[in-house]
Amino acid sequence: MAEEYHPHSILLTGGAGFIGSHVCNYLTTKYPDVKMVCLDVIDYCSNMKNLGPSLNCSNFTFIKGNILNVELVSLVMQVHKIDTVLHFAAQSHVDRSFGNSLEFTQTNVLGTHTLLECAKKYNIKRFVHVSTDEVYGEVLSGRANEMAILSPTNPYACSKAGAEFICQAYIRSFNMPIIITRGNNVFGPMQFPEKVIPKFVLLLNENKKCTIHGDGVSLRNFLHTSDVVKAFDIVLHKGKVHEIYNIGTDFEISVLDMCRKLIKILKKEGNEEDWIEHVPDRAFNDSRYMIDSSKLIALGWKANTDFDTLLTETVEWYLDHLDWWDQEYIQSYLLPHPIAYAPKTADFQKSPSTVFT
């Protein structure tokens, strides 16, 4: 087995977001001798509360800024002597990508390119690029392994695939030490309620119906944050550069059946169908994703298969933390089809920076 990699100073992008914050908190507290620098623009779905555990650690630094800001990224890498990048920062909501795909291309493609160029300049020793299983497109039967052809079907997935191709170009052209991960949908505490599970929890808590896109029979795999953080811990330390690792679970459920599980948890009485409303489908809705995670499993990772228990715990967290977001602010994100409009300015290059240590 190859020698484990041990980082000294990590730049984690998108650390105030959902998955990024869980990974940041896990690694920052588990490895107190490793410096963790979090760079986040604090977008609509970011939340500094997500970083509570990290903010209490002496090895943690938070910087408010945009990954598109070349000067800022270069300065951060130089000043903090960064040797490792964990790149989580992304626009990630499929529904919003149908309304403003340009924003997704700017952040996901150009943002990744900016980081790679800076990483090349400062001789980063390991660059973990976080992608998605959606780059495979529909997996109608069997499982997609890491060698499967990419066939993304929506603007979000296309932007993530585009970022991957730039990563591959830097591997081949400059021999950069890049690792790519492709993960399932993730659920757990602190997820912004535009995503299906927290959205349905909050709708039901407000005695509103769950809005199902189309017939709701599309199958999805949901991976809990407790499994995801361990996966990235393993990829960071044991993963092989220039490799791709799927991060997924064998548990598969339709959106409609998952909705019914939430109704059973939150609405003990009455007919389940009374809490379901079918709305027009997305512009395109993949019917199924299923990925083969055997490469990651071979490194020692294993997903928790007790979905029902984890789902119940997640619901309880949201009910106990209704003040995590301003309730008036999130109402527009609980709509069946949230729309992101094109920005009024095309200047994505500059953003103010703020440092918290």
Automatic annotation (TrEMBL):
GO biological process, one term: nucleotide-sugar metabolic process
Pfam families according to UniProt: GDP_Man_Dehyd
Gene3D superfamilies documented for this protein: NAD(P)-binding Rossmann-like Domain, UDP-galactose 4-epimerase, domain 1
NAD(P)-binding domain boundaries: 11-314
Cofactor(s) recorded in Swiss-Prot or TrEMBL: NAD(+)
A molecular-function term among this protein's GO annotations: dTDP-glucose 4,6-dehydratase activity
Key words, A-Z: Lyase, NAD
Protein name: NAD dependent epimerase/dehydratase family protein
Origin species: Tritrichomonas foetus
